[in-house]
Backbone:
């Protein structure tokens, strides 16, 4: 025997009489009910910085690893009708990175803050600091339009549509970042991919490919500005910023070497010289800049007991120097010039006391 159909529990969408549907009257909000306000977008965020480590942390299951990019650290602020590309020092370089700005506009109408690195990639897809410096210098300084076709490798999301994400654990921020960039990845803003591999093997592979190193991030940590140990960097070759405090003249070129200094407490200490890595145009530009910074005082800017003929300059220029090790008397070994950092980048000068 066939059972009769059950009476539906839900009310039919249309009344039998065909009358118009009506919604319930809107009730006033209960003042006792808490409001959930949006978080205002911070005008600037001090970046989280990676601490140099010699080996991966023990029990690193909660860590994620990615390639270390060699460029300028930037935060991209995207708001309604406005995009800002801020350097680590808080300067607006939007006019220097038009491709990144255009890619950021395409992410709208969402509001967000992306954290990442502005880089120039070589033919093998490796970031090249010299290429980036050239794109910012030779292409723009003559015309006054300091622009670069650099791309952004994004690795964190700090703010999204009215919500400050810095208190959220990194693995959740990372997932949101990948969702945001899922449809646009491959343009001028790209995701810096996490690589699932043993970090020691990954570092070895990165060094074999000529990369700078790898960066690890604690998946369970919130976003904290400065060097907190939540982010670690393992390098193939050491690369740090040093003050240029003088140069050794040459009869066949702008100079034969640059003399370098690092912080030792509150003072500067001579740490050796660098005489390789310069292109002719870059060397000439450096010499012109140093001629404007000639040291006027009788004593040099750093204690020095060497026998070279040196033209001392005010410790203003910060050079990025690649080196293999330190000598027994505290000087750089096998050093090479990579490029000149800009003050607006708020580059670190190496500290001997850390």
Residues:
């Amino acid at each position: 025997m066939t059972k009769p159909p059950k009476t539906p529990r839900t009310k039919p969408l249309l009344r039998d009489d065909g009358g118009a549907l009506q919604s319930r009257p809107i009730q006033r909000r209960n003042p006792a009910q808490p409001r959930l306000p949006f978080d205002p977008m911070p005008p600037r965020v001090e970046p989280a910085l990676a601490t140099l480590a010699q080996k991966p942390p023990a029990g690193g299951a909660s860590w994620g690893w990615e390639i270390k990019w060699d460029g300028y650290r930037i935060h991209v602020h995207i708001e309604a009708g406005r995009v800002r590309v801020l350097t680590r020092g808080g300067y607006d370089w939007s006019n220097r990175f038009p491709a990144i700005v255009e890619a950021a506009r395409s992410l709208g109408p969402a509001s967000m803050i992306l954290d990442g690195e502005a880089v120039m990639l070589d033919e093998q897809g490796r970031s090249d600091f010299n290429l980036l410096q050239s794109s910012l210098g030779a292409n723009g300084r003559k015309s006054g339009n300091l622009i670069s076709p650099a791309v952004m490798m994004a690795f964190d999301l700090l703010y999204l549509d009215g919500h400050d994400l810095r208190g959220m654990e990194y693995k959740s921020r990372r997932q949101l970042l990948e969702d945001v960039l899922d449809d646009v990845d491959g343009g001028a803003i790209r995701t810096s991919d996490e690589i699932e591999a043993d970090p020691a093997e990954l570092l070895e592979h990165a060094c074999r490919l000529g990369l700078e190193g790898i960066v690890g991030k604690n998946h369970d940590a919130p976003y904290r500005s400065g060097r907190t140990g939540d982010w670690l960097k393992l390098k193939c070759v050491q690369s740090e910023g040093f003050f240029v405090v003088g140069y050794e003249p040459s009869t066949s070129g702008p100079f034969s070497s640059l003399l370098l200094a690092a912080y030792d407490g509150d003072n500067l200490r001579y740490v050796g010289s660098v005489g390789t890595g310069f292109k002719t145009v870059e060397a000439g530009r450096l010499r012109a800049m140093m001629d404007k910074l000639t040291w006027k005082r009788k004593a040099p800017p750093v204690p020095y007991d060497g026998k070279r003929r040196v033209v001392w300059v005010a410790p203003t220029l910060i050079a990025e120097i690649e080196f293999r090790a330190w000598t027994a008397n505290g000087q750089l070994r096998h050093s090479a010039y990579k490029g000149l950092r800009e003050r607006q980048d708020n580059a670190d000068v190496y500290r001997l006391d850390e």
